[in-house]
Amino acid sequence: MIVTFLGTGTSTGVPVVGCRCGVCTSDDPRNSRLRQSVKIEANGKFFLIDTTPDLMGLDDIRPFNFRQRESIHAFANAPTAKAIRRAFSYIWNDTQIGGGKPQLELHEVDGTFRHHDIDVVPLPVIHGDWTILGYRIGPFAYITDTNGIPDSTAELLRGVDTLALDGLRPSPPHPTHFTIGEAVEAAQRIGARMTYLIHLTHEIDHVACESTLPENVRLAYDGLRLEF
Amino acid sequence: MIVTFLGTGTSTGVPVVGCRCGVCTSDDPRNSRLRQSVKIEANGKFFLIDTTPDLMGLDDIRPFNFRQRESIHAFANAPTAKAIRRAFSYIWNDTQIGGGKPQLELHEVDGTFRHHDIDVVPLPVIHGDWTILGYRIGPFAYITDTNGIPDSTAELLRGVDTLALDGLRPSPPHPTHFTIGEAVEAAQRIGARMTYLIHLTHEIDHVACESTLPENVRLAYDGLRLEF
Q: Which of A56, A67, A176 minimises the CB distance to B56?
């Protein structure tokens, strides 16, 4: 299994449009962060774990549909599936086809599911007022957008080798995301061999911030590739 | 007034993901086309004329809101405004703020309107089953996404100096867009001094296609800048 971090930034991306801060103008490529998403290759198949705003590019699955000549399967909890159906209603509504519509088979998940012989474990986590999903595939778990991990989800993470975990910024506390300090605390509680912090703002300089972290917590960066 | 073409491609962009055709692998930068949009600078203010799928990046106005400390004004006809309110319902709904919401002041237009002392003339055109809007600002008019221009709209275009007009591909005819030939015919009917074709697919090689066009019809390309 190969995990590639396609983006490790918060929803604005880094550099932030128009910003001249030290991180946004940095020469260190690890300070350039596309919006958070990850690609997982397993059994010769690809999973993309992706959230808004990147999901707003859903129209872009069309070239893949054209080439594969089949639908793409998508998995989401019920509220997320509902939001996708609302925002991309033209996929399901009987409107003119125009340049083609994304061919999407949308599955609502409420527990472990199997796709292409791969078991995927949804991980309910707190994101402000909402409960949203991270995902675990075997040794790897991915939780972006969280400021709280319930005990029942910590249980689902037992024995995980590598965890990717939301660590928005050093401070102040945020109503929907972990700070770096809160993420480190959660990482030690979960106890993965290695935790990579993700969903990072321009308030994080890669080298300076990583030097403050314990050895089993690192910062992810765009293009980071992990093999299992 | 300065008009800059930010993108001149159809909704997939060019190159198309995964495509190895001659245009998608061309070295000619005019064969690289972001999705169709145009920036107009007038009286020191900027207008962006933009459609889905690019509008799906509406979340990205947040950094502009942060810097300007004010809302961005958006103008659309009633069905488009409704679609924006549906797809981006979180802007108007009382949900958690999280990383911030786009600050947008959405105006429904049904005729000429004035913004920052600039008169903007909506141009109703046919786009398959729908009537959508192009826009004219003084000497420049912009019509993407069309396969028919009603006489009443041709009237609104009287005396226009430069027209940007949908010219999807050479053939076959498309249910919602002009082919190159149809666009040339419409251009001659409108009679602008110069017409630039836009919303181009990877079936158009810039040099080869432009050599077939009459002198008063050219292909637009990303970065093309016109001054009035």
A: A56
What is the nearest CA distance from B135 to chain A, expressed in angstroms?
A: 21
Taking the C-alpha atoms of residue B6 and residue B27, their distance in angstroms, rounded to an integer, is 19
Whole-model pTM? 0.92
Residue whose pair of structure tokens reads 């300089």 in the numeric block: A205
Element (H, E) at A7: strand A2-7
Is the ipTM, as predicted for this complex, more than 0.90?
Answer: no
Token pair for B189: 């009917």
pLDDT in tens, A75-84: 999 999 999 9
CB contact B67 to A (< 8 Å)? yes
Give A62's contacts in chain B (Cβ within 8 Å): 11-12
Residues of chain B with Cβ-Cβ distance to A98 below 8 Å are 127-128, 175-176
pLDDT in tens, A131-160: 999 999 999 999 999 999 999 999 999 999
Find the helix or strand (DSSP H, E) in which B50 lies: strand B45-50
Q: By C-alpha distance, which of B5, B9, B38, B6 is closest to B169?
A: B9
Interchain CB contacts (distance < 8 Å): A and B: 81
Q: What is the number of alpha carbons within 13 Å of residue A136 lying toward its C-beta?
A: 22
Asked whether the beta carbons of A220 and A198 are under 8 A apart, the reply is yes
Is B60 within 8 Å of A12 when comparing Cβ atoms? yes
- The Cα A57–Cα A104 span in angstroms is 13
**Other C-beta atoms within 10 Å of B155: how many?**
8
Gap between the Cα atoms of A128 and A106, Å rounded: 25
Point out which residues pair with B122 in neighbouring strands: B135
